[in-house]
Amino acid sequence: MAAERKDIRSYNYEELLKEMQDIGEKPFRAKQIYEWLHVKLADSFDEMTNLSKALREKLSVNYEIRKVSMLERQISAVDPTEKFLFELKDGNVVESVLMKYNYGNSVCISSQVGCRMGCRFCASTIGGLVRNLTISEMLGQVYQIQKICGERVSNIVVMGTGEPMDNYESFLGFIHMISDEHGLHISQRNITASTCGIVPNMLRLAEEGLQITLALSLHGSSQEKRKKLMPVANKYDLSEVLAACDTYFEKTGRRITFEYSLVQGVNDTQEDVQELTAILKHRNCHLNLIPVNPIKERDFQKPSRKNALEFKNKLEKNGINVTIRRERGSDIDGACGQLRRRYVTARKGEPDESLCND
Ligand code: SAH
Fold first, then answer.
1. Cα 356 from Cα 290, distance rounded (Å)
2. What is the pTM of this model?
3. Tens digits of per-residue pLDDT, 315-343?
4. Residue 306 falls within a domain, yes or no?
5. Atom 1 of ligand 1, nearest CA residue
6. Per residue, what are the HEC states of 29-98?
7. What residues form DSSP beta bridges with 290?
8. What is the mean pLDDT of the chain?
9. What are phi and psi of 279, to 5 degrees?
């Protein structure tokens, strides 16, 4: 059997220079190919018209540009939001979201197929983790969306399915490549990655010399409450997680965003206001409240608009820098894995795991 062709989009600039050198090509060829892949967003070697036919053939014997193909596109009628379902080479599917703002186009990408973190209110985790995404598959989501919508993507949030700190190496490679001046060159300051709080990798990230924003999924105002919603809290105590956030801020100067999914009757009480205030008051941070998006598999309800506003106002009075996340694309399948989940369950008789070809 022929050896599997290597995914050429996964090489960073230096690695591609080396690869091309190894097959006897000059450095300027690597520069041209990198530009085709990461600036002109080519999907095939045939598009690379400034390369000789012989070189294109040589490339396609050794390498492939692994497909991230659009299966579904949902365009919201209520705001400029679109959701995409992409199929990967092995048949797995991931979802991504495009949100257009007046400051630019923001893309929310997935970092894993499924997730093993088990947060109680999250649809992404229901079928467990299928596999990590590669650097190329994370880039591919952004590239496809930029091509489909025909406008530059200026901001990235790694807040789709998956836990980026559980796919650390690929996530890091993705950040370097998406912000590389040889590629799309998206400013790291316009990138936010969200974690449920995997302390050792948050501390690693603090040392990488990056300028991305780290968002922490807090969701509970005490260790006990967090444990009820997030199994990861059994592994890392809230005090350790907060200390890791402080380290990230000290090392990078980037203010932490805390995310707090508001669940009616669970974490929206007066006691939560007080505990949250105690945790956040002395920290240079921002709190983003997300009224929980109910999923049919779980019995969590979002608070009324009035209660959510009251919760926010009380925190504001206590000096907390807080916003309620504006709901986007409410008429199309909610984010957080619900589009993929619907697709996967619709493939009759095929449980989640059967999508894994590994
Ligand atoms: N694994 C990362 C990214 C998850 S998605 C993390 O845990 O941070 C981004 C945010 O959406 C997280 O804060 C996540 O907890 C939250 N979220 C997931 N499902 C949700 C739902 N149904 N309603 C509201 N927020 C949800």
1. 31
2. 0.94
3. 999 999 999 998 888 788 654 567 777 77
4. yes
5. 163
6. HHHHHHHHHHCCCCCCHHHCCCCCHHHHHHHHHHEECCCCEEEEEEECCCCCEEEEEEECCCCCEEEEEE
7. 261
8. 93
9. -70, -40
Domain membership of residue 308 as a residue range: 196-327
Task: Please check whether residue 35 is in contact with residue 28, taking contact to mean a CB–CB distance below 8 angstroms.
Answer: no
Residues 203 and 304 in one domain: yes
Q: Whose CA is nearest to atom 10 of ligand 1?
A: 159
- Nearest-atom number in ligand 1 for the CA of 217 is 13
Give the burial class of 275: count Cβ atoms within 10 A of its Cβ; 0-12 exposed, 13-18 middle, 19 or more buried: middle
Tell which atom from ligand 1 comes closest to the C-alpha of 293: 23
Ligand 1 pocket test, pick from 116, 119, 324 with the greatest ligand atom count within 8 Å of Cβ, gives 119
Longest CA span, the chain: 70
Q: Is-catalytic flag, 95? A: yes
> Same domain for 89 and 71?
yes
Distance CA 30, CA 87 (A): 28
Q: Do 45 and 75 share a domain, yes or no? A: no
* 64 belongs to the catalytic site: no
